[in-house]
Amino acid sequence: MPEVLGKGAAMVRLTRAQQQVRTRTSVLAAAREEFTEHGYALAKVDRIAERAELTRGAVYSNFPSKRALYLAVLIDMIEDAATGGPPEAPMSPADALGVFARSWLERLPLVGDTASGGRLQLRSLVGLLDDGHGRAVLAQVARLEALLLALALESCALAPRVPTRRVRLAELVLTLLDGSGHLAETAPGFGDPFDVARACGHLAALDLADTWAPPHLPHVAPARPCEDVWDPPAGLADRLSGDRVDLGADGLIAVLGAGRLAAAEEAVRSARPGEQVTVVAVTSDPAETGRLVRLRITDLTGCLRRVFAPEVWRRVRLVLDEEGLAASAIGLTDPHDETEAAVRVQDGRIVARADGRGAAHAASTAGASSGARSKGAQASGEQSRGRT
Questions:
Q1: In this predicted model, what pLDDT tens digit does every residue of 26-46 receive, in sequence order?
Q2: pLDDT-derived band of residue 121, with 50, 70 and 90 as boundaries?
Q3: CA atoms of 292 and 285, how far apart (whole Å)
Q4: What interhelical angle do 132-154 and 291-304 show, nearest 10?
Q5: In the structure, what pLDDT confidence band is assigned to residue 376 with cuts at 50, 70 and 90?
Q6: So what's the pLDDT on residue 162?
Q7: What CA–CA distance (Å, rounded) separates 141 from 143?
Q8: How far apart are CA 331 and CA 342, in angstroms?
Q9: What are the chain's domains?
């Protein structure tokens, strides 16, 4: 029976949808109090239900697990937070890293203090990922995070003769920042966030001999040429800029499962000059795995937007395809965490399809001239030799 609010003439009858929104809001508010007070491991769903004045079943009807609820609380908290002022003027990689680190470290308490929001403020994942799959997904998300930060840092270079890959630098910075967050929880009072921010800026001067090479071609299945009509879904948001994504533009669309997100770099580095690259993240478990990806990406991009203007990613778009709309549009009926597929769009049609390992590289280079392939192979060999 629909719930009734008010009395007499002011009586208002809530619809089922309104009841569901109200119940979900109550659960999230109660869960935020519980997780702030007890942390993830010691929080109890029964106490959350009691705080919300609901039954345990009502909590689970909205969130299938305590983990899903915890992630939803963190996402709700981050997405409601202010994003700060506009980014500063273009700066050097060192200055950009310092500003980025300060933005990231705002969640950490100063020496001698405690985080006002407890473990939630620290975005703690301690005790949350107690299985191999969850940790593997987190590792893939971390690789994607490093790529996004690296692309922004690469835009800071003043027209270098040879493009400089900064993924290893980004990985190093994120390792330092994540470690600082972990220490703030496990060893409160240790370390000074201001020192960490300064250290991140100095890391830009390190020569990490960073290179990238495309997948080894004999192990990548070639793309399938086609001339399929392309009917792109509308209304999907780009997690980098916050704007809507135009999936009808010429370029590459790579659909990657949560367990294959590291392949995003193949899509970005293999794309043809001037074409848009859209990385679409999918999962078969939106309640937990999907929320984990969304949490980490939302947290990172919130910091990135405070430092870098949207145009630094130029032609790269990132979509979290929680409802599978983009995946379905390219013909994937059952996207999952190991999905790796790509299509190349040109003049409103899909002109190449690929799936499996190296799909983005295969789709992007499909139909390239033998000369272009030869140059690509030569560059790959030079990069590979540069690593040894």
A1: 999 999 999 999 989 999 999
A2: confident
A3: 10
A4: 20
A5: very low
A6: 55
A7: 5
A8: 10
A9: 4-62 (1.10.10.60), 93-203 (no CATH), 221-387 (3.40.30)
Token couple for 175 = 């390792």
Q: pLDDT tier at 151 (50, 70, 90 boundaries)?
A: very high
Residue 384 has pLDDT above 60, yes or no: no
User: In a 3-state reduction of DSSP, which class is residue 280?
Assistant: strand
CA angle 266, 143, 280 (to 5 degrees): 60
> Which pair of structure tokens corresponds to residue 170?
């980004």
Mean pLDDT (whole number) for 314-331: 94
CA 362 to mean position of chain CA atoms: 24
Say if residue 85's pLDDT is above 70: no
Q: Indicate the helix (H) or strand (E) that contains 29.
A: helix 16-42
**Most distant CA pair in the chain, distance:** 81
Six token digits for residue 214 = 């495309």
DSSP codes of every residue in 296-310:
HHHHHHHHHTTTS-G
Residue 238 predicted with pLDDT over 90: yes
As a whole number, mean pLDDT of residues 254-270 equals: 97
What the block records as the tokens of 244 is: 């809507």
* Phi and psi torsions of 160, nearest 5°: -65, 150
* 218-to-3, 267, 271, 358 alpha-carbon distances in Å: 63, 18, 19, 11
Q: Read off φ and ψ for residue 260, nearest 5 degrees.
A: -130, 20
Sequence-separated (6 or more) residues with CB below 8 Å from residue 68: 287, 288, 291
Sign of the dihedral through C-alpha 340, 346, 348, 350: negative
Residue 47: pLDDT over 50:
yes
Residue 273, amino acid: P
Both tokens assigned to 201 = 């800026």
Q: What is the mean pLDDT of residues 346-365?
A: 95
177, with CB counted inside 10 A (0-12, 13-18, 19+), is buried
Phi-psi region of 288 (alpha: psi -120 to 50; beta: other; left: phi over 0): alpha
